[in-house]
Design a protein that fits this description.
The complex is a heterodimer of chains A (117) and B (108). Chain A has no helices and eleven strands. In chain A, the strands form two sheets. In chain A, strands 2, 4, 5, 6, 9, 10 and 11 form a seven-stranded mixed β-sheet that branches. The N and C termini of chain A lie far apart (36 Å). Chain B has 108 residues and is mainly beta. Chain B is globular and about 40 Å long. Chain B starts with 8 loop residues before the first strand and ends with a strand. The chains are: A mainly beta (117), B mainly beta (108). At the A-B interface, strand 4, strand 5, strand 9 and strand 10 of A face strand 3 and strand 4 of B.
Amino acid sequence: GAVVSQHPSRVICKSGTSVKIECRSLDFQATTMFWYRQFPKQSLMLMATSNEGSKATYEQGVEKDKFLINHASLTLSTLTVTSAHPEDSSFYICSSASGGPYQETQYFGPGTRLLVL
Amino acid sequence: DAKTTQPPSMDCAEGRAANLPCNHSTISGNEYVYWYRQIHSQGPQYIIHGLKNNETNEMASLIITEDRKSSTLILPHATLRDTAVYYCIVNAGNQFYFGTGTSLTVIP
């Protein structure tokens, strides 16, 4: 399957600061990438769909001004958590999709664990 | 919202087949069934997907009922490294909505 990387794998920051997480599709060009969040002992929750060259589409309840997504190239999407607060501490996972309509297999990155103090 | 229901947990003896069920009674005709698994603190790993026919690859087999309202993922010879949370997902468009999954524990 496709290889997706994330950087950093782990980050600790102070409350009020911003944190940028990178997601790279290493072996294919992804016009669409996805960002998920996972709290302890819970399932993955889709946050937004990142479209190359256009604005991201956010799921209901996800603040677009707080979670800034940029997908400037076919291999890189970034998620910036702005003015982070302790409640933003979570496991953030990205994925990239390959395949045609209705058959888009998603390949996931290893995740980024964010801890906001 | 997730369109699937799975048992919250299952145990399986090492070396035996693990059969993980999933109900997706509201699945649409053009929606695929995907299976992923997540080992603790890692990103989900793709296992297999299918539309109508049964599928097999090097990791698992996928059995989809004729009415497509349920499916079963089969790990033919479970090992300790197969201990993970297994997610069944119905692909609505290109977005995945994860349910709560099944926590499979393989017992020595």
